[in-house]
Amino acid sequence: MSVKVQRQKQESSQSLIYRFNQAIQKSGVLVEVRKRKFVKRAKSKNLQKEAAVIREAKKKEYQRLRKLGKIVKKARRR
Fold first, then answer.
1. Domain boundaries of the chain, sorted by first residue
2. pTM attached to this predicted model
3. At CA 55, angle to CA 72 and CA 44, rounded to 5?
4. What angle do CA 8, 13, 17 make, to 5 degrees?
């Protein structure tokens, strides 16, 4: 997806930049880059399993502390 623009005879640098920008927009490179910018890579199966185990342990600890009265559930604001 590379774009090449060569300077023509008697062409100013401003018009060269303008032609380059137009070529980039028409080729769709910029749109593709903006799409890829926020894409996150998928986690491996082992990392997913580890995260699930940690999440479950935190849930159990929270529930245990709540049962003991050490954590008071806050009222929701509206």
1. 1-39, 42-72
2. 0.47
3. 160
4. 90
Q: Please say if the pLDDT value at position 1 is more than 70.
A: no
CA distance 15 to 4: 15
Q: Which amino acid is at 78?
A: R
**Sequence-ordered list of residues with C-beta below 8 angstroms from that of 32, at least 6 positions apart, any chain:** 1
More confident residue, 76 or 12: 12
How many whole angstroms from its chain centre is CA 78?
Answer: 31
Task: Compute and round to an integer the Cα radius of gyration of the chain.
Answer: 27
Any residues with CB less than 8 A from the CB of 28 and at least 6 apart, and which?
A: 1
Question: Which tens digits make up the pLDDT trace of 3-41?
Answer: 888 999 999 999 999 999 999 999 988 888 888 888 888
**DSSP states of 23-42:** HHHHHTHHHHHHHHTTPPPP
